[in-house]
Amino acid sequence: RQIRLTPSAIRARKGGTPVACLTAYTTPMAKLVDASCDLILVGDSVGMVLHGLASTIGVTMEMMILHGKAVARGVSHSCLVVDLPFGSYEESPEQAFRNAARLMAETECQAVKLEGGQHMAETVSYLVRRGIPVMGHVGLTPQSVNALGGYKVQGRGEDGDRVAADAAALADAGAFAVVLEKLPESLGARITRDIAVPTIGIGAGVLCDGQVLVVDDMLGMFSDFRPKFVKRFAEQGREASAAIAFYAEEVRSRRFPAPEHSFADEGNL
Ligand code: KIV
Ligand code: NA
């Protein structure tokens, strides 16, 4: 594929082969993800994973634009989505449009993602009718961590109806897909059955129309948090720390650099 998958193509995957999604924040990681996945998300998780913030609340438009541009340079066939950061869209549909349009114009992403259910439906429809494809995000919405009282499973028991209504409101407002974060598996299945657009799960069970993870989490590169829904497909953090310790030891013992890493005064240009 030479051209990127479109948001409409992702939408058309409803009920079909699951949509494989990962985050990316840099050009080299975007190239790796682009080779195998269908959708790449420049998540505001970048603030925690790469910038050491304690939550996603301090992430700015400038950070999303910088990382969005870097990722765009590495994406040729996946659908590229960039997160609207906290404070950039909640005030009004107009504010959301202004910032979403800026993200699209500056990063060349194909869609934006925002957090929130029924109360964001009007904004989603405002953006979609003006040419900005939107991905929704309900259940555990990390930008609301202070209001939710932590990173807890959402939608257990009676609360399931609220989360289901949130997802349905976004689908009805024109979102092309909805992320379901940290829900009971049965609720993930129920929402997937009930809404017309793909559900992309992260800790929402195996029956969603697709899955997403933070790439640094699944590679074992980011260990500040270890949510139960993260499967470690690699242990890159462990490998990197062993390699760095080995390097430091070789420098101190003068085993590195060896002759093959050194230059003679002549020849061997
Ligand atoms: O910011 C992020 O990485 C996300 C996904 C994990 C859904 O929003
Ligand atoms: Na996010």
From TrEMBL:
Q: Does the keyword Lyase apply?
A: no
Subcellular compartments: Cytoplasm
Mind telling me which Gene3D superfamilies this protein's record contains?
Answer: Phosphoenolpyruvate-binding domains (3.20.20.60)
Iron-sulfur: present as a keyword of the record?
A: no
| Reaction catalysed by this enzyme | (6R)-5,10-methylene-5,6,7,8-tetrahydrofolate + 3-methyl-2-oxobutanoate + H2O = 2-dehydropantoate + (6S)-5,6,7,8-tetrahydrofolate
Q: Which residues bind 3-methyl-2-oxobutanoate per the record?
A: D44, S45, D83, K113
List, alphabetically, the CDD domains matched.
Answer: KPHMT-like (cd06557)
Where would you say this protein principally sits, based on its record? cytoplasm
Keywords from UniProt, A to Z, are: Cytoplasm, Magnesium, Metal-binding, Pantothenate biosynthesis, Transferase
Q: How is the cofactor bound?
A: Binds 1 Mg(2+) ion per subunit.
The cofactor(s) it depends on are: Mg(2+)
Which residues of the sequence carry a binding annotation for Mg(2+)?
D44, D83, E115
Give the positions the UniProt entry annotates as the active site: E181 (proton acceptor)
According to its UniProt record, in which pathway does this protein act? Cofactor biosynthesis; (R)-pantothenate biosynthesis; (R)-pantoate from 3-methyl-2-oxobutanoate: step 1/2
According to its UniProt record, the EC number is 2.1.2.11
Molecular function terms in GO for this entry? Answer: 3-methyl-2-oxobutanoate hydroxymethyltransferase activity
Q: One matching Pfam family, short form?
A: Pantoate_transf
Q: Which NCBIfam families match?
A: panB, PRK00311.1
Quaternary assembly: Homodecamer; pentamer of dimers.
Per its database record, what is this protein's job? Catalyzes the reversible reaction in which hydroxymethyl group from 5,10-methylenetetrahydrofolate is transferred onto alpha-ketoisovalerate to form ketopantoate.
What is the protein's name according to its record? 3-methyl-2-oxobutanoate hydroxymethyltransferase
Gene that produces this protein: panB
